Amino acid sequence: MAAGDIPNSTAQTLQAARESLDEGLFPLEFFHDEGLHDLEMERIFAQSWVFIGHESEIPEPGDYAQRYIGDDTFIFVRDESGEINLLFDSCRHRGTEVCRAEQGNTSHFRCPYHGWTYKNNGEAAGIPQKSKAFKDLDREEYGLAHVPRLETYEGLVFASLAEEGPSLDEWLGDFKWYFDVHMKLPEGGMEVIGEPHRWVVDANWKTIADNFNGDSYHTAWAHGSVVDLELGGEETVGHAGTGESLDRHIHCDGHTTSMRGFEGEDVFLTYPDEIVEDLFTKDDLSEGQWELAKQALSFTGAIFPNFGFLHFGDTTDDPEKDVAPFFTIRKWRPIGPDQMELWSWGLAPKNAPEAFKQRMYKMYTSNFGPTGNFEQDDVPIWKSITEAADGQFAQSQNLQLNYQMGLEWMSEMDIDDEWLGPGFAYTENLEEGGMRLFHEQWYEMLAGNDRTDATGSPINVTEDR
Amino acid sequence: MLTDHQADIESLLVERSVEQFLYYEAELLDNRELHEWFDHIADDISYRMPRRLMRENQASAFSEQGYYFNEDYGSLKARVERFDSEYAWAERPPTRTRRHVTNVSVSEDDDSLDDGELHVESNLLVYLSRGDSEAHTFYSARRIDTLRQTDESFEIADREIRLDQTVLDTDNISIFL
Ligand code: FES
Ligand SMILES: [Fe+2]
């Protein structure tokens, strides 16, 4: 569908969204809407850079893993020459899926239907009885289809179903400055430990996108059990807006990160001294990036549209044990208007001692993933929003959800003039501008516009927009 | 002949007492009497649930690094105590569960066992019903335990939970298996 020919229902949806967004609101019904889901798949997920996996998940030639963009299944595979490919998992003869396992290693993918085989770079290798049955068929035209664009940033592989559009580098923009801190702080970078946790939950993907775009307000309440049990320091889990720590909500080129830290202190996300001394390096970071890492206690954030991360210090699995950090990245894959699959990975510095990597992975599973002491309590909340959005009432009463925290008439909000990084940093974490920024980009893409139409200016200061 | 019988009867009695313990344990967990359950956890416990892998040529493969649980006494205790908090929203209201324990096998002569320890395997099927809904789900697993005899009962010294699903169909895992 061309951008010009928008059906009535879509035009109405966009109009309703625009009116809500202008007030810092969002219609509840949009968290459960079949038509909207189809539109999101077509206009957002088929046009964006979507996270696929980390290179370290498929280190050897032939290593592969099944991965998804929306409803499409792909094979994420390292070929014999060491190149990474993302192949559409469908035999070019009659469509059968040729990859049957979640992960493995193979030189060829063999179709179970009539036996066509493909090399792990996608090329068609064997067609049974070709000389009799398919004399004129050109093998070169019948390889597995490659995703139109596949690019890597610091080992993180993203794909785009769109033939054209911004490069991954442009998509991430200056937000790389922030993500570099996570990926490049330890010498040798970060690697993925084990395989991702995967679980299918009955919640709309925008609920979690909202949460990762700066919901500092929920932490102390929704995760009150973690506070009660002293499984995290007061600053990591405690209330937003105390003003005791350095709390910043940062927006940069459409992506966001929330940070807590301590000005002028050597925090380094509570990595132990020996890791900081032996492994952390300024080599690949600027002075400002190093300064940020030094002061930081925790980061949460999201890359539009469906990638999230948490890099926390000062957490434990047992109040009797020392605190340690964890680093986790994730994606939320929409399956329907009321369902998504969560994918969550634990990471650790590649060159850290084995015991420390294991401790970080333990911290990750104790806090996040399906068994995490934090995350156990998040998912049912997102599910219940989705349930409330279903049915007639949300629509007939035009129920609007409130994202006005941080708008000038709601709370005191300043932009930090001295902020050391790109984008904007709000001086408080009692604000919901990250969510509004997410909604604005969602809106622009649904309307067929450029995502960057929404990303330019501070989202809290209404006159400037 | 007589001594053979005696040995048979003795191992039947052991098997029966193990089964009775597993049923009792299931009842405690179904009733969410978590502290009473935790009284049966040995202080050198290793409680693990590795991530199941899906491989083309292997029926049963588990991750060497990835897991859902890898708990010692302190971290398992913290997980139990978390549910005492009024903010542990995942279990408010508590999931209605019913654990079905079957296919129990008991062996006493495993080299890795100390005196008074038993190697016990069992199948576990848990029915879960949540919220104000007719919807339900199941967790299915093979459990591999080391049980240790105490004065009147058993304690769990080691447990590996081998879940059958690779992609979970659940909001979270906020129950003990
Ligand atoms: S469908 Fe694959 S060989 Fe025919
Ligand atoms: Fe949360």
TrEMBL record, chain A:
Which family is it part of? Belongs to the bacterial ring-hydroxylating dioxygenase alpha subunit family.
Q: Which PANTHER family match?
A: 3-PHENYLPROPIONATE_CINNAMIC ACID DIOXYGENASE SUBUNIT ALPHA (PTHR43756:SF1), CHOLINE MONOOXYGENASE, CHLOROPLASTIC (PTHR43756)
Query: Which spans are transmembrane here?
Result: none
Domain (Rieske) spans 49-147
Q: What is this protein called?
A: Phenylpropionate dioxygenase, large terminal subunit
Is-annotated flag, keyword Oxidoreductase? yes
Concerning InterPro entries, the annotation shows:
ARHD_Rieske_2Fe_2S, Rieske_2Fe-2S, Rieske_2Fe-2S_sf, Ring_hydroxy_dOase_asu_C_dom, Rng_hydr_dOase-A
Could you tell me one molecular function GO term of this UniProt entry?
dioxygenase activity
Q: Which UniProt keywords apply?
A: 2Fe-2S, Dioxygenase, Iron, Iron-sulfur, Metal-binding, NAD, Oxidoreductase
Automatic annotation (TrEMBL), chain B:
Query: Transmembrane residues, as ranges?
Result: none
Question: Which superkingdom is the protein from?
Answer: Archaea
In alphabetical order, the GO MF annotations are: dioxygenase activity
Q: Which UniProt keywords apply?
A: Dioxygenase, Oxidoreductase
Any Pfam family from its record, for instance, is: Ring_hydroxyl_B
Is Oxidoreductase one of the keywords UniProt gives this record? yes
**Swiss-Prot/TrEMBL GO biological process terms:** 3-phenylpropionate catabolic process
Q: What is this protein called?
A: 3-phenylpropionate/cinnamic acid dioxygenase, small subunit
